[in-house]
Design goal:
The complex is a heterodimer of chains A (133) and B (138).
Chain A lengths: L1 H7 L5 H11 L18 H12 L2 H5 L4 H9 L3 H4 L4 E5 L2 E6 L2 H10 L6 E4 L13
Antiparallel strand pairs in A: 1-2, 1-3
Helix pairs in contact in A: 2-3
Chain B lengths: L7 E4 L1 E3 L4 E10 L6 E8 L6 E4 H6 L9 E6 L2 E14 L2 E10 L8 E2 L9 E5 L4 E5 L3
Parallel strand pairs in B: 4-9, 5-8
Antiparallel strand pairs in B: 1-11, 2-3, 3-4, 3-7, 6-7, 7-8, 10-11
The chains are: A alpha+beta (133), B mainly beta (138).
Chain lengths: 133, 138
């Protein structure tokens, strides 16, 4: 157990030990640090505190599509370049395009895209929704 | 003074030229969750319901001709829209709602409408930054 503590200790900052004190309700965290050699906390407690401390809210809530959205932000030319086509978007960018969804997914699979975001880029501007009857 | 607390801030895709707000969603069949597809959808508070392009429904294995229909009112008149209850995943949250399908000639963008989504969340925009503010409470 002591060896495990020592192995984990470099990852735990003094701030984290304060957080640990808050989490597990142990006293003395303000003055505690691991270089003192005192095995105050168990490995499980250290892991709990490290995970809680090192996992900021942003990471907890970041959606899987964050990279794709940011890629699209950086590449507005997509909206004209692929006008009138279906496109498959991965975190690396547009991996495939096609006139219909079946073609699109075939091409996306060929390029190794497992779970792309697919959407169709309208050929022309106009109303977002209109009846054609 | 009342305050509004939005707990999640996320960038959205602003479609040129008007920066229309699009977000990534996943459509999931309730009866067969393995059949799902990710798509972009316009957050449209002017739409009563969620509407998606027919190709996505077909990708989910739905027979659109066999679905119940509702009569929708559009800018061009009334139209029959096949509908199906699906799960819609948005930013890790899953909502169950009725989704209608229209061919892409009539539906330029997929739409996230009020019923099923807007009535379950709090939502704000900061268009100058292309950011959404969400809170997962009705």
């Amino acid at each position: 157990m002591a060896q495990e503590n020592l192995r984990l200790a470099p990852r735990v900052t003094q701030d984290a030990t304060r957080k640990l004190a808050e989490v597990v309700g142990l006293p003395g965290a303000d003055t505690f640090h691991f270089t003192s050699g005192a095995p105050v906390y168990t490995t499980l407690q250290i892991i709990q505190a490290t995970v809680l401390w090192e996992k900021p809210m942003e990471r907890e809530t970041a959606p899987p599509e964050q990279d794709e959205v940011e890629w699209l932000h950086a590449h507005p030319e997509v909206w004209t370049q692929y006008a009138g086509q279906w496109v498959a978007l991965t975190r690396d960018g547009i991996c495939a395009s096609g006139d219909d969804l079946n073609t699109l997914f075939e091409r996306a699979e060929e390029c190794g895209a497992q779970d792309p975001i697919v959407f169709r880029i309208s050929a022309s501007e106009g109303p977002k929704f209109y009846a054609n009857d | 003074m009342p305050t509004i607390d939005f707990s999640i801030v996320r960038p959205y895709v602003g479609i040129p030229p008007n920066a229309d707000p699009m977000v990534a969603v996943r459509l999931i069949r309730i009866d067969e969750p393995k059949k799902n597809v990710r798509a972009l959808a316009l957050v449209d508070s002017g739409a009563d319901h969620c509407l998606f392009q027919s190709g996505l429904g077909e990708r989910l294995g739905l027979d659109l001709d066999d679905l119940p229909v509702v009569t929708g009112r559009t800018a061009g008149g009334r139209i029959e829209i096949p509908v199906c209850r699906l799960k819609v995943e948005l930013l890790h949250q899953v909502f169950e709602c009725q989704v209608g399908f229209l061919d892409e000639e009539r539906l330029k963008h997929n739409l996230l409408g009020r019923q099923g989504i807007f009535d379950q969340i709090q939502l704000g925009f900061r268009e100058s930054r292309l950011e959404f503010y969400f809170r997962w409470e009705p």
